[in-house]
Amino acid sequence: MLNFKENEDLNKLNHSCAHMMAQAIKHLYPEAKFWVGPVIETGFYYDVDLGETVITDEDIEAITKEMKKIAKDGKRIVRNEISKSDALEKFKEDPYKLDLISRMDEDSTVISIYTQGDFMDLCRGPHVESVKECKYFKLIKFSGAYWKGDVNNKVLQRIYGVCFRTEEELNAYLQELEEAKLRDHRKLGKDLGLFMTNDLVGKGLPMYLPNGYIIWEELENYIKGKERKLGYKHVLTPPLGNVELYKTSGHWEHYQENMFPKMEVDGEEFVLRPMNCPHHMMIYANDIHSYRDLPLRVGEIARDCRYEASGALKGIERVRSFCQNDAHLFVTPEQIGSEFKRVVHLILEVYKELNITNYHFELSLRDPEDTKKYHPDDEMWNSAENKLREVLDEIGIPYIEKIGEAAFYGPKLDVQVRPAVGNEYTVSTCQLDFCLPAKFDLTYVDKDGEKKTPVVIHRAVFGSIDRFIAYYIEETKGVLPTWLSPVQVAVLPVNNVYHLEYAKTIFDLLNEENIRVEMDEREEKVGYRMRDSILKKIPYTLVIGNKEVESDLVTYRKYGTEEQITVSKSDFVQFIKEEIKEKRF
Fold first, then answer.
1. Catalytic site includes residue 277
2. Annotated catalytic residue: which of 123, 134, 163, 277?
3. 344 contacts 391 by C-beta, under 8 angstroms
4. Dist CA 337 CA 285 (whole Å)
5. Is 326 among the catalytic positions?
6. Residues in the chain with pLDDT values less than 50
7. Which one of the listed residues 23, 116, 157, 324 is annotated catalytic?
8. CA-to-CA distance for 84 and 122, rounded, in angstroms?
9. Tens of pLDDT along 250-266?
10. Which of 458, 459, 529, 557 is catalytic?
11. Which of 251, 412, 467, 516 is catalytic?
12. What is the pTM of this model?
């Protein structure tokens, strides 16, 4: 979908439409006061203090009607620059604007205001020439929002909208939003019985239902099987650790605001872990290592906990407890290139098998001018960055270089997916780390008998399995490949009196072959049960009637088709087992 912030014209247009909305609100609610109205990736919003008034659908209709009147009137949008003292005077009745102005530097900040007819607002701009350009808009939704995002502050009314140059563009975007609603993993998760949440358990703490856990388990077994073939050793570590562990790693100093509060037990302080690398460092430190032992590839499907603001939580995409498909590769400097290459090939293989096509690679590098953020070792950085470039160029993968986006401890490669819903984000990642092994005093003995510090490669192919499932069911609209589907075959006897016994033999046969099968013997018409099977997005539905019983055959219909195919039981079993084994999409 479009990113309004990155599109210069849409950015300006939506910024202006936000002001037009504020003007309309001021006409309808003269006492209204405004906080900020930025352009965001999905359009714009404005935070408004309406006193005791709570926005309703009827209010949105009234605001929309008033906005159309303002657009038709077509007042020019005029920019003026004023001093800080003048700004304080002009907005002296508005505590929200006064808060903004008071924090501006009097000497270095240019304070600008934009006026359109009877409305004036503090703003950096830029804006379009007149409100006439903002006539193709739609107010999308509304919600409450704490002032400055602080739960201790007042709740303001936040109204979201979008604006386009043409009616056709607006309608096309609104159609995309409708499509996004149908793909939303929260809706699909509920419809397909995949996961649930409950505030009594806790916000951001999803629970996987049987169908959802089957998907989870299949993905876990899939990626662990691939890792084992590549020489990974899997471990299991606890989801909490002593605070001293995170002080040693540096997370307590640099990442504490994203962690849950510490707990004191028997005189020790513990914390829920936000990531797994410190535990894996300790596993490495448990033994003495020679250069002959390396690379050592330690993998884990590991439970992590991070504090996320309640407003940022979203289904299983953004949560407070999640599992990472994590691994740490302990390598010599000479092995960086070959191991990095193996990781990239693994990512490409997984994406191909799962039919993930809309993605690109980003190589995050340090900013040499930033001497505070990055580990101070020019030789290390230059060598590592060049090594990663060489591997990507050798494989022939196009990539974008992002200066200043590296982690403080080393360069990294991110795979950005462009999902069917929302904006792009990172799924897979591969990061070099020269710092953490030193912090934990990790060593290996090289061929000359000297102790050296290994390099660590952090990598995650699925990233968070929770987030990957959310991404994947949105991409597929919940129509998963057969190997990943919670129920692979539904068996429907047309009439329980005449067909149920034979249907049960089919059920038992499939069950014996480890095919996930469901029997629907409800006393409902077969058409009704067939529609239910389609709603559940079950890959194959077998309808068992007189013909099947008399000829000892099965008739199946594949999801998404109308064709009914009759085959022998053994042929169907062989066919579906091959499809599952080959992970056909």
1. yes
2. 277
3. yes
4. 24
5. yes
6. none
7. 324
8. 11
9. 889 888 889 999 999 99
10. 458
11. 412
12. 0.84
